[in-house]
Design a protein that fits this description.
With 194 residues, this protein is α+β, with helices and mostly antiparallel strands. It has one domain: C8orf32 fold (Roll). The chain is 28% helix and 23% strand. The protein has five helices and nine strands; from the N terminus they run αβααβαβαββββββ. It has a seven-stranded antiparallel beta sheet with strand order 1-9-8-4-5-6-7, covered by helices on one side. A two-stranded parallel sheet has the order 2-3. Helix 3 crosses helix 5. The longest helix is centred in the middle third of the chain and has 17 residues.
Length: 194
């Protein structure tokens, strides 16, 4: 969705409070993402195209809320950091010559939604129920760029796995305005602008 320059990435990181690896899900004060819903709608067309190619990666199964545990925290941190370090952030226009394409990273390159889809794929391969991991489309509140992240729903709150940071933060600790979110049913919700 967006390619960050080194300057923009540094500016983004400066806007978000620090979190130490391994302790990120232990932050106090996290809650489930609850924003007024404007409407329920079909998935974005690019996601629908991805699902036609990879149907098994779009049917969300299992528990929609995970019990938080040290093992889950460690796995989320490990996968988030690994994908962030293994994949080079390159926009779809620069990589593929198209405005927007959702898919798994190709040749160790991809953009934000590719990172998020890869993270969910790896977590499912490690036994995490896919219904607890949903895609979200957000907008950076200060730098004003569109972005995609993976949200993980736990009994300690909604956590964000983001290609712009290795640590995992609560949904309300990142500088994003949430626009749309996937639901375990396959539909998406659009949030009321605030």
């Amino acid at each position: 969705m967006f390619t960050l320059t080194a300057l923009t990435r540094a500016a983004f990181i400066g806007f978000v409070p620090a979190c130490w690896a391994g302790a990120c899900l232990a932050q106090s004060g996290c809650s489930a993402l609850e924003i007024e819903i404007l409407r329920v709608e079909a998935p974005p067309s690019q996601y629908a195209s991805f699902c036609e190619l990879h149907p098994g990666d779009c049917v969300l199964r299992g528990d929609a809320v995970l019990p938080s545990s040290p093992g889950l925290r460690a796995l989320l941190n490990e996968v988030n950091s690994a994908v962030n370090s293994e994949i080079e952030l390159v926009s779809d226009p620069d990589r593929l010559g198209v405005e927007e394409d959702w898919d798994f990273p190709q040749d160790c390159r991809g953009d934000c939604e590719d990172f998020a889809l890869e993270k969910r794929h790896r977590l499912v391969a490690n036994g995490v129920p896919s219904a607890a991991m949903t895609m979200a489309i957000v907008h950076h509140e200060r730098l004003l760029f569109p972005h995609a992240v993976l949200l993980v729903e736990t009994d300690t709150g909604t956590w964000v796995l983001d290609n712009l940071r290795d640590d995992i933060l609560c949904w309300d600790a990142v500088p994003y305005r949430y626009e749309r979110r996937e639901q375990p049913s396959g539909q998406w919700v659009r949030f009321d602008p605030f």
